[in-house]
Amino acid sequence: MTAFGFGADRFGWTDDALAAIRRLRGWTEPAIERLELTYDPRSGAVGIPIRELADEVEVGRLAYIPWPERRGNGRPKMQGPAGVARQLFPPPESLAEGVVDVLLVEGEPDSIAAWSAGLVAVGVPGTAGWQAGYAARFRGPRWRVHVVFDCDESGRRAAREVAVSLLELGVDVRVVDLDPARSDGYDLTDFLLERGPGELRGRMAADELFSTEPPPPWRSVIWPTFRDEAPEGHRWLVEGLLPAGALGFVAGPPKKGKTWLGIGVALALATGRPLVGYTTNAVDVLYVALEGSRTGLRARIGALARGLGVNPDSGELDRLHMLYRPRPFDLVEFATADWLADEAERVDAGLVIVDVLRAAARFRENDAEDFARVRDSLEPLLVADRTALLLHHFGKLNETQKERSPGERMAGTGAMYGALDVGLLITSSSDGARRMRVDVEARDFAAPDAIGVVILGNGTGEHGGFTYVDTATLAVDESATEERDLVLELEALFADGEWRTLNEAKAKPPTGIGANKDELRAVLDGTPARFVRLDDGARVGRAKQAKPYGTVAMRAALADEQIELENWLGDAEPVEPVLTSSGHESRTGSLAPPTGDSGGASQSSSPHSDRPEPVRPSQAPPEDDVWTF
Length: 629
Hints:
CATH topology of the largest domain: Rossmann fold
CATH architecture of the largest domain: 3-Layer(aba) Sandwich
Structural class: alpha/beta
Radius of gyration: 40 Å
């Protein structure tokens, strides 16, 4: 007798072999005895009996070599006697009465592992070994049959074929996929050694009857399951600002710093450097650039990298992956969604930035159903715990927009705002987008106060733009969050007496004040007590259609000059200007002073020196000039 209580003369097992097979495969002595497994110490082969039915004698033995080191020289791990086919092991007819759950597994070794774990199992002789007549042998007893095959393509295909044949005969059958995420041949023995029989029994109890109907796309879980599977806290990409697995937006008015901010986020995460004072956790970043030139992107990335203390020509940016204007690319199409998810998986991107949304999908922004398809296309990224950050525009600013939260100002359907998990929203931008107020909105955490962001550095390119060799730094400046008093800034601008168009007023200093066009229009048109707009630019030496803006005081001065001129000429009754309800000046019967060089009018030395000055009374035209009033 061996130390384990077996008759060595019957089975051939030694103490060392029994201990080794327990460590390697989890096989136990009771299972070896129940299944009548023999052992040949010389070859290392385990003998597995072949019986066609329970009451028939043994017709042969399979020689199974469980030891990888003893399978050299092309020796197969499983070999049967010539002319003898493998059968179900053990025969289902040999199972004891009262059994309820029976595992139908792939191969004899997995059957032995199941018996060793205290389970009842029948092994199918390989994925191609299931025969048409086998299903009838499971029909009589009231068993729940659980098909547990290997985690690979052939195993899953065979498991379904076996289940279908059993279902056709009315057998209570279920299919257990040990690990849906794996396709490497992971089998029942691996599962039992790694997770134990308790977890398998839980899976068996939860599995539903097999059906040839497509399974429902989702199932609810009980609260304890949800509670235990949900992470206790956010996994942060940017601590307290940008979590993993979130749908985020970087949004603002056109040309007001979205790409600068988007690239800044990308570089900070790709390098693990701080982002405007916030700690980051380095991840690979996939930047999908759908607009802008390669030169412009190269310059911004190079300058901002140097601002982080990173040499863009070194390997420090190897975690930044650029996808430039891919074609085709349309997030409304699920093919694009699959390609994007595959590329994100290939580079293991923790963050995917799409610059910009309008170029990423052919959809109607105001249509909630259209945006829902875009949102569905991004779902695979979010499920994989990757954050998707979309660059997007604000809608035109009007009185209604001003009353909304920053996130609700995004152009398009309100469904975008509803889908937002986190938003970095540029609500104010000046100095050519070098000073920004960034408001933060969040769904699942307390959003921080607005962040004042400035771009520091001097560009050496044309008109002061940044080049690849320059250094640009995203820095925090709380003064950038302060609300601008556009009324006071405009009054200071107009203090020189120059009438300006809206585009001129919004230009960078010193020509303008460097503000958002829609915000300026709202202030200029909405403050009639301070500002007016001329319907005829020719009155101030501009093109007739220019319709420039100025202050009420400038209009009054212009009216005084007009009245003085008319009285001096004596050809028309003095008239007073009438201010329309919109704040624009209108005159009935007023003369239009000549423009051009008539009367030898001198040129102004103002920034608009190419415009002729209006004729003053002291510059009366020669008598032979003909004016039309």
